Amino acid sequence: LTFSLGVGIQAAVGAAELFVAGNGNDAWSGTLAEPNADKSDGPLASLPRARDEARRRKASGPVTILVRGGTYYLDQPFVLEPQDSGTPERPVVIAAYPGEKPVISGGRRITGWKPGPGQLWQVELPEVRAGQRYFRQLFVDGTRRQPARSPNEGYHRIAKLLPGPPIPNAKPVARDKFGFAPGDLQPWPQLNDVRVVLMHSWETSIHPLKSVDTATNIVEFAAPMREWWSIGYWEDAQRYYVENAFELLDQPGEWYLNRTTGVLSYWPLPGERMDAVEVVAPVLPELMR
Questions:
Q1: Is 45 left (phi over 0), alpha (psi -120 to 50) or beta?
Q2: Is 154 helix (H, G, I), strand (E, B) or coil?
Q3: Are 241 and 205 in contact (CB under 8 A)?
Q4: d(CA 68, CA 97)
Q5: How many CB atoms neighbour CB 20 within 10 A?
């Protein structure tokens, strides 16, 4: 998740200016737009440090924080509190440096890719293996990539609704399992990585799997749906697709993350070089608070 700071916001007349830049240093004053010749002063490196300095300065007059172009990766959400508010007479403004586009990112770059089997490239993420991190989105050069998916285009359809407890205003069908057409799902070896995405009237719901039985053609979720409606409420042959099984990684632009080993696999698009692209996966659940 990223956002760009507003461009064209006018600083207050006579405002104290603070600068943030990728080549900055949080030990500097922040009053220079770029480092000085002897690298003893220059812009700050982070928004939290600029916010804290603005808190100190705003009692004396308006403050404008100008953020230079580039991408700023956050380790934790950027927090603004009532004490950071200005007044009509002494506003506090955070804006893009004129003519530049800073981007604030809640992701983290992934590097260290090595050739894997076939067309794949792989990298090991120790924090995933240790259970400290997991993600369901991946971006390459700013564009979302599709987790390994079945079918690659379109959807599967639920073949059979299964009986379940009565639910007010909903069908009395199971909320944690359904029957599938032969071949649509398999008991993949790393089943705890796999998820079913159900298509509802206006939303999707994501379901990690507990089991896939190819004798009865029944799939069971790790937990039941928590919505008020049941499976098949909107249509009996409800649409769904499956994603994040290594065995489904069968075309360029797809990827798979193994939760147990921490290995991330990616099949590059034609022309993509893994030593030249920027790969980013989410870290933060929110950017600002």
A1: alpha
A2: coil
A3: no
A4: 5
A5: 27
Cα separation, 140 vs 110, whole angstroms = 10
Query: Which residues are bridge partners to 138 per DSSP?
Result: 145
CA distances from 162 to 87, 159, 197, 221, 288 (A): 61, 10, 18, 13, 43
Contact by Cβ (8 Å): 66, 97: yes
What does DSSP assign to residue 135?
-
Give 74-111 pLDDT, tens digit per residue: 999 999 999 999 888 889 999 999 999 999 999 999 99
Residue 139, both tokens: 């971006």
Spell out the residues 6+ positions from residue 34 whose beta carbon is closer than 8 angstroms to its own. 19, 21, 23, 42, 43
Q: What's the Rg (C-alpha) of the chain?
A: 25
Token readout for 167 is: 């639910």
- In total, the chain counts a number of residues equal to 289
User: b vs e for 147-169, b when ≥16 Cβ sit within 10 Å of the residue's Cβ?
Assistant: bbbbeeeeebebeebbebeeeee
Q: What is the pLDDT of residues 24-64, one digit of tens each?
A: 999 999 999 999 999 999 999 999 999 999 999 998 899 99
pLDDT tens per residue, range 165-201: 887 777 889 999 999 999 999 999 999 999 999 999 8
Residue 253 region, left (φ>0) first, then alpha (ψ -120 to 50), else beta?
Answer: left
Mean pLDDT of 243-254: 98
Please, what sign has the CA dihedral across residues 34, 35, 41, 44?
positive
Joined together, the tokens standing for residue 284 give 């933060």
Residue-by-residue DSSP string for 2-56 = EEE--SSPPPPTTPEEEEE-TT--TTS-S-SSS--TTSSS--BS-HHHHHHHHHH
Q: What is the pTM of this model?
A: 0.83
